[in-house]
Design a protein that fits this description.
Blueprint (H helix, E strand, L loop, with lengths): L13 H4 L13 E4 L2 E4 L27 H4 L13 E2 L5 E2 L5 E7 H8 L9 E4 L3 E6 L2 E6 L4 E7 L10 H4 L6 E5 L4 E8 L8 E8 L8 E9 L2 E10 L4 E9 L5 E9 L1 H4 L6 E5 L13 E5 L10 E7 L9 E8 L9 E9 L34 E8 L4 E10 L6 E10 L4 E9 L5 E9 L5 E8 L6 E7 L10 E2 L1 E4 L16 E4 L7 E7 L9 E7 L11 H23 L4 E4 L2 E5 L5 E8 L2 E8 L5 E4 L2 E4 L2 E2 L2 H5 L7 E5 L2
Parallel strand pairs: 3-25, 4-29, 18-22
Antiparallel strand pairs: 1-17, 2-13, 5-33, 6-7, 7-8, 8-9, 10-11, 11-12, 12-13, 14-15, 15-16, 16-17, 18-19, 19-20, 20-21, 22-23, 23-24, 24-25, 26-27, 27-28, 28-30, 31-32, 32-33, 34-35, 35-41, 36-37, 37-38, 39-40, 39-41
Length: 653
């Protein structure tokens, strides 16, 4: 139920968009305040059945956005097909779901509250024993077998007896996160008691124990009296709970900049009054520039003192110097909150992308569905939740995604990224745009397991495919930039949304903290066509290799040697080379039946010798040679062009 969900690619005057990256981050001092109320709730499990308010849907029309031709002219890239587009499926089937069950639905809103909401804003997370899910405007707790333990409960019931707007309103835009560092649950939604006028609040609850059905420390934070805190997105970090908000002027609903927030985690975890640090309008003078996400920690904590990283993408179509990711650093200073800093950006040039789906239309009817002229919004103007962070020891990693037009024909696909940091700055380790057929894929959420394997979940639809939930992925050792597994279906849709264009506005891919291997994904779908009868699905899966003992360097070398020998045998047999034998890690090949051209090359990061048979014969890839035609260690021979080599001994790596 996003209020005026206006971000990144809105009507942006060229004079603003063309500011240099170095000018973007705000140097201004933060606003520091304390929670306006806090207490301890009754157990959530006894708060069922208590009526709660159902507020009117908090949606406003987005203003028109600048077409590429007006923002940056014909120079905006790409001019055609996405340069990192993956147009085929992988070769190995994705793991099938371990669990797949229905979560909350709009029917639950009707049963509990007597009304409904579109879109659902589907979110959820997994802990050691539970899965907690939240939509507009109800929540539920499941065990990890998919049995519902609590709910559907009106989301505002978590603040029942708290008083004030957190109890008296039920406005949505919820987020659920499991804080594995503390073994606690975070649940939040905003409160807009006088919408569209202020004041505007964020309601935050943290479980007192690992049990999400029990009691919570509850908080109300006044975000602003004049600026609405739309699309709040959270990230767990050791020193704070961080949040990004898109701000809008009360009453008029005009964009009013990007907000970045830190909540005092140490105090919240023990139920004490807590402080909040807020940087408003972090891009001064650019109220239309929004779309940040905070990083959300999985696994090992970051290095001591590390800032929380915020990220956004920028499209050259809006006048930026290039298509890019921007990384910012938020350092909360609880000893002196006024000294907290929000700095950046570090700009990382990406492969060219086109985030302009449906010409940034005023009307959000964009992606087709079967059996209806109603189209749904692609929300291609922002990074999609989450910006997941992992610390692998030798490097840190971030993964994220957004929706793009992959070929200039309003063909929605998902651009995904893995960023690395090895003691210095961030860099793009790999990226790709996933659109392996003519269907549209959007509303993605991406995560990485403890082994570095990636899973991406998303919606998929076309004029012949009902909106469905699918997922794809890759292993850490797979070729970069490719989702190497054939996508799997969590559930096939049975109908279209034929009464509204809003879809999403987000979904959530999580990783089970108990094994760091099992992915959980939640997303919306329709079982049958209706104006607003959305359902949600919750599913889990894991890669079989995750968590298995990793080979030692010697074992990995031996594995590569064995695989290389196998490949060489196949290729030499294809060449008709009769004399082929190996001893240890040395392969001896009789090349008397061919006249190859020999070139030193770098294959997959290893220095190798590439022997190519004239006439386009299959290649032979081998390691550095020992001798050729009886001349030992003769590198000049192997570098020479058009040399006839009758016999070679080569060392395999």
């Amino acid at each position: 139920m996003t209020v005026a969900a206006l971000t990144l690619l809105l009507l942006l005057p060229q004079v603003e968009a063309r500011r240099s990256a170095a000018q973007e981050a705000s140097p201004r001092a933060p606003l520091v305040s304390s929670s306006v109320a806090n207490d301890l709730s009754p157990p959530l499990r006894i708060l069922t059945g208590i009526p709660a308010p159902l507020n009117a849907v908090r949606e406003m029309t987005r203003p028109g956005r600048v077409p590429r031709s007006q923002a940056a002219g014909a120079s905006a890239l790409p001019s055609g097909v996405d340069p990192v587009l993956q147009i085929t499926q992988g070769s190995t089937p994705m793991p099938v779901p371990i669990l797949s069950f229905d979560g909350l639905s709009n029917a639950d809103n009707g049963a509990v509250l007597g009304g409904g909401a579109v879109p659902p804003d589907t979110t959820g997370d997994v802990g050691p024993n539970h899965y907690v899910q939240m939509v507009n405007t109800v929540l539920a707790v499941f065990d990890k077998a998919g049995r519902r333990l609590v709910g559907p409960v009106p989301s505002s019931n978590l603040w029942r007896g708290f008083g004030g707007p957190c109890e008296q309103t039920n406005d949505g835009d919820g987020i659920v996160l499991y804080d594995h560092l503390a073994d606690r649950w975070l649940v939040s939604q905003f409160a807009l008691p006088n919408f569209p006028a202020g004041p505007f609040f964020e309601c935050v609850a943290i479980s007192q124990t690992p049990d999400p059905t029990a009691v919570y420390f509850r908080y109300a934070f006044l975000m602003s009296t004049t600026k609405l805190n739309d699309y709040p997105k959270f990230g767990v970090w050791p020193d704070a709970y961080y949040m990004a908000i898109n701000q809008f002027t009360g009453v008029t609903g005009q964009p009013a900049g990007q907000g970045a927030v830190a909540f005092e985690r140490d105090k919240i975890l023990v139920g004490q009054p807590a402080r909040m640090v807020l940087f408003e309008d972090v891009f001064p003078g650019q109220p239309f520039v929004q779309g940040l996400l905070p990083s959300d920690l999985d696994g090992a904590p970051p290095p001591v003192g590390a800032p929380n990283y915020f990220a956004a993408f920028r499209d050259d179509a809006l006048g930026f110097s290039s298509d890019q990711l921007q990384i910012f650093e938020f350092r909360a200073n609880w000893a002196n909150p006024a000294a907290s800093t929000f700095t950046g950006p570090t700009s990382l040039t990406t492969a060219a992308f086109n985030s302009n789906l449906c010409n940034f239309a005023l009307i959000l009817d964009c992606l087709p569905q079967p059996g209806t002229t109603q189209r749904v919004d692609a929300i291609s103007d922002r990074l999609m939740f989450r910006l997941q962070y992992r610390n692998f020891g030798d490097h840190e990693a971030l993964v994220t995604n957004h929706t793009v037009d992959v070929d200039g024909t309003t063909h929605a696909g998902i651009r995904w990224y893995e960023l690395h940091r090895r003691g210095g700055g961030w860099s793009i380790h790999q990226q790709g745009s996933y659109a392996p057929d003519a269907n549209h894929r959007w509303m993605g959420s991406i995560a990485m397991d403890g082994d570095g394997n990636i899973a991406l979940g998303y919606s998929v639809s076309s004029s012949s495919v009902f909106p469905s939930i699918r997922y794809a992925g890759r292993l850490a050792e797979d070729p970069l930039g490719k989702l190497s597994f054939v996508e799997a279906t969590l559930i096939a849709g049975g109908g279209s949304q034929n009464g509204a264009n809003r879809w999403g506005d987000y979904s959530t891919m999580s990783v089970d903290p108990t094994d760091e291997c099992t992915f959980f994904y939640t997303q919306e779908y329709y079982a049958s066509s209706s104006p607003a009868g959305w359902r949600t699905r919750i599913g889990s899966f894991r890669y079989p290799s995750c968590g298995q003992p990793k080979p030692t360097p010697k074992e990995e070398k031996r594995r590569k040697l064995t695989e290389t020998q196998r490949q060489q045998k196949e290729r030499t047999n294809a060449l008709g080379l009769d004399d082929y034998r190996t001893e240890g890690n040395v392969m001896e090949v009789d090349l008397s039946g061919a006249i190859p051209r020999v070139v030193i090359a770098n294959i997959d990061g290893l220095e190798v010798v590439r022997l190519e048979c004239d006439g386009g014969c299959p290649e032979i890839h081998v390691g550095d040679y020992l001798e050729a035609d009886g001349v030992k260690e003769n590198e000049q021979l192997f570098d020479a062009e058009n040399v006839t080599v009758r016999h070679a001994k080569v060392r395999l790596r």
